[in-house]
Amino acid sequence: MERFAWKGNIYHTNEERKIEIFENSWVLCEDGICKGVVKELPEEWKNAKATDFGDKIIIPGLCDLHVHAPQYTYRGTGMDLELLDWLEKYAFPEEASYSDLEYAEKAYSVFVRDLRRSATTRASIFASLHVLATEILMEKLEESGLKTFVGKVNMDRNSPDILRESTKDSAENTENWISESLDKFKNTKPIITPRFTPTCTDELMEKLGEIQKKYGTPVQSHLSENPSEIKWVSELCPDTDFYGEAYDKFGLFGGENRRCIMAHCVYSGEEEQALIKKRGVWIAHCPQSNMNVASGIAPVRQFLDNGLKVGLGSDVAGGSSLSIFRAMTDAVMCSKLRWRLVDSSLHQLSIEDAFYMATRGGGSFFGKVGAFEEEFEMDAVVIDDSALYTPKKLSPHDRFEKLCYLYTDAKIVAKCVSGKMINLN
Ligand code: GUN
Ligand code: FE
Predict the structure, then answer these.
(1) Which domain holds residue 13?
(2) pTM beyond 0.90, yes or no
């Protein structure tokens, strides 16, 4: 039995999306599982490895439910276009360069290093359509100790020649890659990844649905992100009433034994939200990307009030920042603009709502993840926020809010995933 205890100012959210704060307390871990938070170390834990982090902040690891690893190279550039033109001008040509494995090796080293050093402990990641480069990414992620899902992307139409597979190759390559990588790694697992409906024929979607059924692999894609995209999908799929049906009719939209993440849902209406709820689909809310490629503002308050499952995504390179702290504050800020300018009936999000989505909301996709409750997996990040010092006396709540907005001035000093330490160098 392996036990350790960390002391500090511990923050997490409860099921009701309220922050719970335990000042100067111990969080206990046994064999990778959290054993709760206590004020004094119990007698039977006196022999456990105990680390006192003093006045530092301890939070659950943050979860990134949607990020494109090959796009990390051009993050922070190409901010002049809307989604479909942006894909054609920036995303597709860059992703095509991952047929070059030397390039993939270099680019994915940087991506994984930066993710490892961040406050993120878990992520669901899009690679490119190249199997060999995707395997390089998976090996690097496994080495990092983070727990992730990685998707070889599928595209067999409406894509440039340099970034398109035949239907047959796309399906066969996906099945071979899944069967080979299912048990290859402990912490890095495959996820079926049709890029989005416009780049996948019905025939391919049907085959991906069959592969999903055969292997029970989870699924991720994009949904209702941008008005031109949604109009295009309705033309490509005249038999559907709304976008979500274009995945659902192939068994690629959640349901029993079918974990599924759909990114964005900016324009998901009543019917689509009802199906998202019925099928238990996780929504990856990606506010920075939604602003950068001018998609819009998702009605996240409505999702939460209606009991939909919502996590946060960086959506690099639609989003420029890999930080989920940044996604949290962006979510709060753009919800205020939505409230003021679009729909005054949907009140702004709070920092609590954002913290919940970044931890428990996204974490539930990975299992019992995202809180320091007993039987949750022990994902924790220890943060030194002393550079944010001010002579003003801050409440523990204000101190946390300040950290979220000014995280770039703080320093991560320790991080573990399922109780295993992550190298931060
Ligand atoms: N829809 C299809 N592909 C993409 C992508 O790479 N990024 C975003 N934001 N949306 C997409
Ligand atoms: Fe995306």
Answers:
(1) 3-60+370-421
(2) yes
